[in-house]
Amino acid sequence: MDSLEGPKRHAGCMKFLGEYWALLIKMFLLTKRKRGQTIAEFLLAYVFLALLLGMRYLLDRNYYQARQITPFRPHDSMLSNSTTANVTYYYPYSLCTDTIVRNAVDGLTQNVPGFSSNVQAISDPTLSSLSNSTLETIFAYIYFTNIDASCNNSALIPDQVQYTLRMQENGLTYYRAQQVKLSESDYLWKRSPEDYCQDNRTSLNYTTQFLGVQYFIDLSIIQYATNINQSISSIYMYHFGCPEVYLDQLHSGFNFFIPLFYSIIYVVTFILNVGYIVEERANKTK
């Protein structure tokens, strides 16, 4: 029995391969004869793919709350400073830098509740030379790198004012540098990249402190250089947002569309193939 089953299996396999090869040749010939329909099939597949991508894009924009954050001003999210760091220091001292910094701090005091109006110039740009008690009082340190102590009017400031802004990292505004660089095992197996995008702890210091101070310093520089009062309400920022992690509208609210989509593709392909066969038979009977 075993000696007979081997040749039968081999013959059956060869028959299947022969029929499959004949079907491939037939489909190839039909494709060559009906080039327009073949191109239409390829285009139809791309249309279905574009439909899925379009649905994903529209659902992301219309339903995801993370993509519907309203425009905000840079200082709207600033937190009131309740720590011992309540002095804004700057270097070097000159009439130009003093005016710029004080105008910026005055604007912050008027628009951010609880913001300290303490401003002080330091004689040494090296912070390590300051005492520990002085370092603890630093809320912001502004170092103008291309304005010297001889500047006493707006005509003497350079066209591009350069400065560095340093701020404390205390409590909620701790930068958490050790969490910025993610290990591969974390985002592959533990948490998704979208989840990390939603987590704003690593950028909290920037959005709730640094961004607002930088914004008012820039406005103060423009106002001092041009002698034109700047409106703090004229600039709004748009948050692009992050993809949602658990709220997937295409999967949850429109999950019926995926099997329906594949069913439509199957039906269309089946109808086209049957049409090819019927038309070929009709041509042979003529």
- Low-confidence stretches at least 5 residues in length (pLDDT < 50)? none
Number of β-strand runs: 4
Give the class from helix and strand content and strand pairing: alpha/beta
The Rg value, from CA coordinates, equals 34 Å
Transmembrane segments: 39-59, 256-278
Keywords: Membrane, Transmembrane, Transmembrane helix
Question: Can you put this structure into words, describing what you see?
Answer:
The protein is of the alpha/beta class. It folds into 2 domains: 35-64 and 250-286, no CATH class; 87-226, no CATH class. Helices cover 53% and strands 7% of the residues. It is built from 9 helices and 4 strands; from the N terminus they run ααβαβαββααααα. It has helices at residues 2-33, 35-63, 95-111, 132-136, 184-190, 193-198, 204-226, 249-252, 257-285, and strands at 87-91, 118-121, 138-144, 163-167. A 4-stranded mixed β-sheet has the order 2-1-3-4. β1 (87-91), α3 and β2 form a beta-alpha-beta unit. The radius of gyration is 34 Å and the shape is elongated. The mean pLDDT is 75. Keywords: Membrane, Transmembrane, Transmembrane helix. The chain crosses the membrane at residues 39-59, 256-278.
